[in-house]
């Protein structure tokens, strides 16, 4: 095989490899499936925060719980970017929105500011779920 043909073959392989590596439903090297994370972290922490913010957290314990939900959702935005899981810019943008929205939710909850907490949940956290799911949830 001529040298240039080798180069083309290697480049083609690398390209295919990259597509396989951008997993969406699972990371590249670690066993965590995306749906496992969604089921145990994104779903429960988001629902719990949304339920609390239908009205307002009732007492100090609930505000403290809301801080936890914000922290976990923020961290989820980082996990979704880890281990070669991110396939494209839409995924990266939604993950960044989740990082920032979770951070804003945690700060608002720490300050016991219900309006800011609602804004962080509705405008950033929920927008990030929707942004990513609309493009990637059905793709395997
Ligand atoms: C960056 C992309 C991304 C973001 C952001 C994201 N998700 Fe997901 N989510 C997925 C993908 C991909 C699946 C499908 C996983 C699969 O079935 O392989 C999924 C599936 C789910 C599921 C179904 C899990 C199951 O039992 O099969 C739930 C619930 C869920 N997401 C909740 C959320 C919530 C709530 C948020 C926002 C706080 C969120 N997700 C944000 C990508 C994302």
SS elements, strand count? 0
Secondary-structure element order, N to C: HHHHH
Number of helices: 5
Summarize the main sheet: none
Number of domains: 1
Report the portion of residues in β strands: under 5%
Q: Which kinds of small molecule does this entry bind, naming each only once?
A: heme C
CATH T-level topology: Four Helix Bundle (Hemerythrin (Met), subunit A)
How would you summarize what this structure contains?
By secondary structure, the protein is mainly alpha-helical.
Describe the structure.
The chain is an all-alpha fold. The chain has one domain (3-136): Four Helix Bundle (Hemerythrin (Met), subunit A) (Up-down Bundle). The protein is 74% helix and 0% strand. It has five helices and no strands. It is elongated, with a radius of gyration of 19 Å. The two termini are 36 Å apart. The site of heme C (HEC) has 22 residues, from helix 2, helix 4 and helix 5.
């Amino acid at each position: 095989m001529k040298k240039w043909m080798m180069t083309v073959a290697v480049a083609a392989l690398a390209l295919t490899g990259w597509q396989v590596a951008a997993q969406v439903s699972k990371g590249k090297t670690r066993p965590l499936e995306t749906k496992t994370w969604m089921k145990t972290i994104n779903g429960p922490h988001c629902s719990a925060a949304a339920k609390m913010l239908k009205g307002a957290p009732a007492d100090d314990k609930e505000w403290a719980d809301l801080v936890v939900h914000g922290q976990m959702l923020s961290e989820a935005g980082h996990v979704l970017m880890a281990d070669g899981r991110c396939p494209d810019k839409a995924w990266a943008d939604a993950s960044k929105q989740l990082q920032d929205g979770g951070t804003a939710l945690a700060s608002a909850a720490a300050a016991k500011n219900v309006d800011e907490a609602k804004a962080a949940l509705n405008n950033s956290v929920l927008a990030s779920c929707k942004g990513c799911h609309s493009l990637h949830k059905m793709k395997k």
